[in-house]
Each structure stands twice: as structure tokens, then as C-alpha cells.
Amino acid sequence: MIISSLTTRYKDLSHLTTFGVQLLMFVSPVIFPVSSYLHSKYKLLIMANPMTGIIEAFRYGFLGKNYGYFSWTLLGYDAACMVFFLLLGILAFNTVEKTFIDSI
Can you give the pTM of this predicted structure? Predict the structure, then answer.
């Protein structure tokens, strides 16, 4: 909702978003499991990504504990980030909604 409300005013944001999503895929643990980086100095940076807990819980559920990492704390952090970004998106959409037709 944040990106869609900002795209009404800034048309090139959609191109930046597609590039950003591709770039962030390499930062998320889609390619590599977090279990291989548990004792690394980059652990906090990897765990700060809100998608880490969801991807790792999915990997843990299907492939087992050798390939995945499960933590209720990490899933709680992911849920808190989702609620925060949802509220931020609602706020952004409500402010842009008033001038939405004029921007299109």
C-alpha cells in the first residue's frame, strides 16, 4: 500500500521497486539457509530482514532442522514488522487518497 500510494505521484517508483525486489532477494535467505550463518558476524543483519523468519520456518517445516531455523521470537518480530508496515501503508494511502484522482 505504501508503494502503490507513492506510485500515483512518482511514476518511476514502479521501476525502482522491481529493481529493489530483485536486489533484496539476494539479501533474504532465499538462496542460502540461515543455519549456515548462525555463528557469523552478519547474523544480526540477516535476522533483521522481516522475511527471514517466514522463509526459515517454511524451510524448517519442509526440510527439517538441518536446513532450516525456527524461532518464535523471529516470527514475532516478523509479525510486528508486518503490522507496522500495514499501519504505515494505511496512513500513507489515506493521505494520498485525497489527491489520488488529480495525480492520475
Answer: 0.76
